[in-house]
Write a structure and sequence with these properties.
Blueprint (H helix, E strand, L loop, with lengths): L2 H5 L4 H4 L7 H21 L5 H22 L4 H24 L1 H4 L1 H27 L26 H9 L5
Length: 171
C-alpha cells in the first residue's frame, strides 16, 4: 500500500468534505490506516500487546482532534484541538519508537518520518489558528524543539514527502 493507492480507497463521503483539503488531516488518516497493520504486527508479540493498543489509539486521536478542531467556530477553539492532535502525534512517535524492535527498522523509520512531518504541519497550524479571527490577543506558548536538539524539525520537502508516501514499508 502507498498513499496514492490508499487515497483511491477513501470513501467519497470523506473526500468530498472540506476537511479533506487539510494535508495534516489526510496524512493523519493515512497514518492511522498504516497503524492498523502496525498494531496487528505488535499484537502478535506478547511484549508489545499493550503498546499496540496505545499506538492505535494515539494515531486515531490525531485524526479525530483535527476533525473536531476543524469544526470549531473560533481560531482559539481550533488551536486547542490542533494542540491535542500535536500531542497525540508526538505520543504516536514514542509508541512507534518503542515498538521498533517488532515493527522492524524500515517500518519504524518510515512511521517516524511521517509522524514528524505531521508534527511540523501542526506546529505551523496552532499559532496560525490562535490568532485567526481573534480580536483579543493572548500570549501563546512558543512551539519549539527541545534546546538539546541542534535544529528544530522541518517539514519534508515536497519531493521527499512524495517518496515517503510512495515507498511505504509494511510490517
Amino acid at each position: 500500500m502507498n498513499y496514492e493507492s490508499w487515497m483511491a480507497t477513501v470513501p467519497v463521503e470523506i473526500t468530498k468534505d472540506s476537511l479533506w483539503k487539510m494535508e495534516a488531516y489526510r496524512l493523519a488518516l493515512f497514518a492511522v490506516d498504516l497503524g492498523w497493520h502496525d498494531a496487528t504486527k505488535l499484537v502478535a508479540d506478547k511484549r508489545t500487546l499493550d503498546l499496540a493498543s496505545q499506538l492505535y489509539r494515539a494515531l486515531g486521536s490525531i485524526e479525530a482532534n483535527l476533525a473536531e478542531g476543524y469544526s470549531r467556530g473560533s481560531g482559539r477553539d481550533r488551536a486547542r484541538f490542533y494542540e491535542y492532535a500535536l500531542g497525540s502525534a508526538r505520543e504516536s512517535r514514542g509508541w512507534v519508537y518503542k515498538g521498533r524492535h517488532v515493527l522492524g527498522p524500515a517500518v519504524a523509520e518510515h512511521r517516524l518520518r511521517l509522524l514528524t512531518h505531521i508534527v511540523c504541519l501542526l506546529l505551523a497550524m496552532v499559532p496560525d489558528q490562535r490568532t485567526y479571527g481573534s480580536f483579543l490577543k493572548e500570549d501563546s506558548p512558543e512551539y519549539k524543539a527541545a534546546e538539546a536538539q541542534a535544529e528544530p524539525p522541518t517539514p519534508l520537502e515536497p519531493q521527499a514527502l512524495a517518496q515517503l508516501l510512495r515507498d511505504v514499508p509494511m510490517p
